[in-house]
């Protein structure tokens, strides 16, 4: 199921961020905020790509069956 994988991707990207914590410990909150913005942006783009792939495959299956 691609939806389960997508949800797992969102979960891991949101809740496991050792890089962000190390950046915050070393450089302070400003760099952590920048890293968080960048990670959210990448997650958003990857989620859009996965969703469009799911939609395209669903449409293809529907047209093949119909």
TrEMBL record:
<protein>
    <submittedName>
        <fullName>Uncharacterized protein</fullName>
    </submittedName>
</protein>
